[in-house]
């Protein structure tokens, strides 16, 4: 199946949706909007992954297995340990493919705001001190820069394994807004549901 442009109607109402994109692209914001339009739960995958002190939670794989076996959800497509599982069970992937300059502006402003306001994130975590961008190569701002290209590799590879999976590519925030208010909303209002058989299991 070819990658769909933002103005193309969806063939059916999706129920298990992944949102792909680099860190800082706005995946969580878009996933929340998709959740509201479709009336299905948004599972913020970062909240399942990060324990206190930014320590990965041992329960993460089991929690992802649990929610993704359900009939309806929206989540972000990330974390290598569960990426294949989620891709096997999704019935739509939304690729938020924003330019690097847009992503960097967003992730930088978000990081500064969170740190200055000392916003509590998952399990009480705080963003690192701003100066750590100079010393930590895995700092979220540096990570967003260095991994920006990866979705452009992962999505075509996914389509080789799941040629049946619809993929919508959104290149700007305005395209994302118009897609949510257009094709997605129309599918939610009048589209037929995709078949309700149990989600496929990932291959060995």
Q: What does the radius of gyration come to? A: 17 Å
Portion in beta strands: 5-15%
CATH architectural category of one domain: 3-Layer(aba) Sandwich
Please summarize the sheet with the most strands: 5 strands, parallel
Unreliable stretches, pLDDT < 50, 5 or more residues?
196-200
Q: What count of helical segments does DSSP give?
A: 8
Strand order in the sheet with the most strands: 2-3-1-4-5
Tell me roughly what share of residues is in helical segments: 40-55%
CATH homologous superfamily label of one domain: P-loop containing nucleotide triphosphate hydrolases
* Arithmetic mean pLDDT: 90
Provide the CATH top-level class of one domain: Alpha Beta
Number of strands: 5
Written as H for each helix and E for each strand, in order along the chain, the element string is: EHEHHEHEHHHEH
Coarse morphology: globular
Termini separation comes to: 23 Å
Helix/strand/pairing category: alpha/beta
What is the CATH third-level topology name of one domain? Rossmann fold
Q: How is the topology of this model organized?
A:
Blueprint: E1 16-20, H1 27-38, E2 42-43, H2 45-49, H3 60-68, E3 73-76, H4 80-89, E4 92-96, H5 100-117, H6 140-146, H7 150-161, E5 167-170, H8 173-190
Parallel strand pairs: 1-3, 1-4, 2-3, 4-5
Helix pairs in contact: 1-8, 3-4, 5-6
